Amino acid sequence: MECIKCRAELPLGALFCPYCGKKQAQEKRKALKRANGTGTVYKLSGRRRRPWVAAKNKVILGYYERKTDALEALEKMAGRNVTGRYNMTFREVYEEWSAEHFKTLTSAGINSYKIAFNGFVSLHDKKFRDLRTKDFQDVIDAKGDKPAIALKYKQLIGQMSRWAIREEISTQNFAQFVQTKQKPPKEKAVFTEEEIEKLKQDGTEAAKIILMLIYTGMRIGELFSLRVEDCHGLYVVGGSKTEAGRNRIIPIWPEAREYFSYFRDKAIAEKLLSGYSGCRDADNFRARDYHFILKRLGIPYKSPHSTRHTYTSMAVKAGVAPEILQKILGHTDYAMTANVYTHIDKDTLVKAVDIADVLLTNKKGKAL
Question: CA angle, 151 as apex, 149 and 135 as ends, to 5°?
Fold first, then answer.
């Protein structure tokens, strides 16, 4: 054999060249040590499908088939502070997210999220950061033809995903890509002028309460929770459900001010409707007094929430500014007010276009 460096003849099996001193056996180069704080990659012993481990700050990021995959996982985490929270499960993310989020919700809102959480039971013990759109989609697809429930499910995972990104548990919101089946929105029933007149003519206390709902746009629960001290003649201060809806100023339409005065004078406790002779609980009033009077007056079935839709449509027709109407109804954005609650008849639409045409014609005339 000959020296790998000087080419001198060497005895067979020589480890070093006696002429130039070159070591004859090539050493395998060791991998460069990673900088402190950037994580580590190591291989587990035995026969494993994914033997390579990527870890950072003593937290295992994952197991991989190839070393290059483990190194790539570490690179993605460069600059991020990894703690034990990184491996939080779906259940653990929900518990911490809900502890923060539920402070701003009513009991009804909290309950709806709890029901949605239970629907994801198959994901409860899985690492949240490992979940992808398909995992969420499979659960939501199982809801079949129940779009309202599926929408709440998507709302839950969307909120949780945004929280997880904020807490550096996830890097992407996969919930945003989930698809839900949407039924075409049904036109909500509103009270006609003739039906409102029937309620006025009836004059019973139950009819007065329905008119109070129609002429303020309040939710039925908001009206039955209203205190006497929050009734100020031309307006009331009340509301519920969302931050935008609480303690808002709600003007009273002139036609209903006498009804508020009536119940304020008759009140026997702190609630405005405490002197009402019928059911003083919102649910009982809805189930008994409300539907009974509609049937007695020959008014087709409408839910109590139809009074809120009626108010909104009346306000739009009367020219109430969008931002004012949004405040009165307690919506966080006007899209909810316009898309869900507003019901504009053909005459109002035609009139709006006619007015616009007159304004445009006058503007052109002045320009000439």
Answer: 95
Following DSSP, what letter does each residue of 9-32 receive, concatenated?
B--TT-SB-TTT--BSSPPPPPPP
Q: What is the identity of the amino acid at 318?
A: A
- For 67-124, how does the pLDDT look when each residue is reduced to its tens digit (9 = 90+)? 888 888 777 767 666 656 778 899 999 999 999 999 888 888 899 999 999 999 999 9
Judge whether 290 and 248 are in contact, CB under 8 Å: no
Cα distance between residue 15 and residue 46, in whole Å? 33
Look at residue 338 and tell me whether its pLDDT is greater than 70: no
Tell me how far apart the alpha carbons of residues 156 and 176 are, in angstroms, rounded to a whole number.
11
Same domain, 339 and 200: yes
Task: State how far Cα 55 lies from the chain centre.
Answer: 34
Crossing angle between the packed helical segments 205-214 and 257-266, to the nearest 10 degrees? 130
Q: Phi-psi bin for 254: left (phi > 0), alpha (psi -120 to 50), beta? A: alpha
The winner for highest mean pLDDT among 164-178, 272-286, 312-326 is: 272-286
In the 8-state DSSP scheme, what is residue 123? Answer: G
Q: What is the pLDDT of residues 145-161, one digit of tens each?
A: 677 788 899 999 999 99
Tell me whether residue 345 is in a domain.
Answer: yes
65 in a structural domain:
no
Best CA proximity match to 221, nearest among 268, 171, 136, 286? 286
Query: Nearest 5°: phi and psi at 101?
Result: -75, -35
Bridge partner residues of 203 (DSSP): none
What are the structure tokens assigned to 182, written together?
């949407």
Please report, for the domain that includes residue 142, its CATH number. 1.10.150.130
Per-residue CA distances from 127 to 40, 42, 85, 124, 260 (Å):
21, 22, 10, 8, 55
Residue 41: both structure tokens together: 């990659």
- Domain of residue 106: give its range: 87-177
Final residue of a structural domain among 151, 177, 203: 177
User: Between the CA atoms of 15, 16, 18 and 21, what dihedral angle is there, to the nearest 10 degrees?
Assistant: 180
Question: Which residue in this structure is represented by tokens 């009139």?
Answer: 351
